[in-house]
Design brief:
The chain has 8 helices and 9 strands. The protein has 259 residues and is of the alpha/beta class.
């Protein structure tokens, strides 16, 4: 049994964060475990409160798992504070498994989930430890300092993050106009992952689910590009078949049985 770890925040609505990650791990046939970094009060209508977990408690959770059930791959999600980002960056220096960094800066509704001061720490402390970083367009702009207006700036932003130490960069195209095409840059060069745009408001947890699916693939021993390709297909299906729960931006369909 392969093991995948999520180091992220809790979403009581079940659509994003730890809850979405564990559902995704299960669907990909890997054992999921979790280290909680922050607690939220949220539903499909928005995030109403965020409480950060102390860095020492986060690291204690992590140490307990590494000592007993070490993962085959891990991912980070919302981390909340600069202190935690720096602490995880130091801890990741001893990881013997790939780390996927999903640099969650805000929730689906735009509410911030990380302190502004943590962005620099993400760039300097965590990206150099990442086997893959998976920003959306606003996150790629914040981390690279490049305003993305088209394909040229998008590739420049990916190259910037690659130079900062991430071994691969996946910039997601959900915030772009037209087809939802993602762009991957790794040691083999460029790879595009096109998909038709699905007109729906039910996209809560898309980024968490995508990075969790990639992490599950890596934990199972799948090569990075194939893991990204499979994850893209999974997320596209999950959006297309979203159950329509809630009065706001609802969750995805994490079940693959109906695909």
């Amino acid at each position: 049994m392969r093991v995948a770890l999520s180091i992220a925040g809790s979403d009581p609505s079940g659509g994003a964060g730890i809850q979405a990650d564990l559902k995704t791990f299960h669907e990909f046939g890997v054992y999921g475990e979790a280290v909680i970094t922050l607690l939220t009060v949220q539903n499909t209508r928005g995030v109403h409160r965020v409480e950060l977990v102390a860095p020492e408690l986060v690291l204690a959770q992590l140490d307990a798992l590494l000592d007993d059930i070490p993962p085959d791959a891990a991912k980070t999600g919302a981390l909340g504070s600069r202190e935690l980002v720096r602490a995880l960056g130091r801890a990741a220096g001893s990881f013997h498994f790939p780390l996927v960094v999903d640099p969650v800066l805000a929730g689906t509704h735009g509410q911030p989930l990380v302190e502004d001061s943590a962005i620099c720490a993400l760039r300097e402390e965590l990206l150099p430890r990442a086997a893959l970083v998976t920003p959306n367009l606003p996150e790629a702009e914040a981390l690279s300092g490049i305003a993305i207006r088209g394909p040229e700036e998008l590739r420049s932003a990916a190259e910037c993050l690659y130079r900062q130490g991430a071994r691969a960069v996946l910039i997601k195209g959900g915030h772009r106009q037209g087809p939802a095409t993602d762009v991957l840059l790794d040691g083999g060069g460029w790879m595009e992952l096109p998909a038709e745009r699905i007109e729906t408001r039910h996209t809560h947890g898309t980024g968490c689910t995508y990075s969790a699916a990639i992490t599950a693939g890596l934990a199972a021993g799948v090569e990075l590009r194939e893991a990204v390709r499979r994850a893209k297909q999974y997320v596209h299906h999950a959006i297309r078949t979203a159950p329509g729960l809630g009065y706001g931006c609802g969750p995805l369909n994490h079940f693959r049985a109906s695909s």
